């Protein structure tokens, strides 16, 4: 995975940073499962976690944005919705074609790359906004 958690990705809001670290660790676990020749069950378990995570994490961020009337909420929400759509497209490929190393690596890389980009831009701006209000 090209995306790795580093402290420069911290948004300065403990709850958000903790969840970001968790998803990076899980995406790494997905790749580790592939590298070890992990079975379908192991990969499926990680993907199920990622599905729940994405839903819960985005919901938490969006709750903060609505509560504090974040002016960039519409744009941020669109990014979340687009990511969810992309994630489910890849998930559908996994369901249709089975868990292949190539597809699993592509999914983990997509998640990692998106997180680095999204956190580095959108979530950092949200964090700066929230730190002034929390």
What do you see in this structure?
- The protein is mainly α and 134 residues long.
- The chain has one domain (12-131): Hemerythrin-like (Four Helix Bundle (Hemerythrin (Met), subunit A), Up-down Bundle).
- 79% of the residues lie in helices and 0% in strands.
- The protein has 4 helices and no strands.
- It has helices at 14-35, 40-67, 73-97, 101-131.
- α1 (14-35) runs antiparallel to α4 (101-131), α2 (40-67) packs antiparallel against α3 (73-97) and α3 packs antiparallel against α4.
- The model has no long low-confidence stretch (mean pLDDT 86).
Please tally the β strands and state the result: 0
Mean pLDDT: 86
CATH architecture: Up-down Bundle
Helix tally equals 4
SSE order, as H and E?
Answer: HHHH
Q: What is the global morphology?
A: elongated
**Cα distance, first to last residue?**
33 Å
What attributes does this structure have?
134 residues; mainly alpha; Four Helix Bundle (Hemerythrin (Met), subunit A); 4 helices
């Amino acid at each position: 995975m090209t995306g790795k958690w580093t402290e420069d990705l911290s948004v300065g809001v403990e709850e958000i940073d903790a969840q970001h670290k968790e998803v990076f660790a899980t995406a790494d676990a997905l790749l580790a499962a592939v590298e070890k020749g992990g079975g379908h069950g192991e990969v499926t378990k990680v993907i199920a976690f990622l599905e729940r995570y994405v839903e819960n994490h985005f919901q938490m961020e969006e709750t903060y944005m609505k509560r504090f009337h974040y002016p960039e909420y519409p744009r941020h929400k669109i990014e979340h919705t687009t990511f969810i759509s992309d994630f489910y497209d890849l998930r559908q490929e996994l369901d249709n074609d089975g868990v292949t190393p190539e597809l699993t690596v592509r999914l983990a890389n997509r998640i990692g790359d998106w997180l680095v980009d999204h956190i580095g831009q959108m979530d950092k701006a949200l964090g700066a906004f929230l730190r002034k209000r929390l």
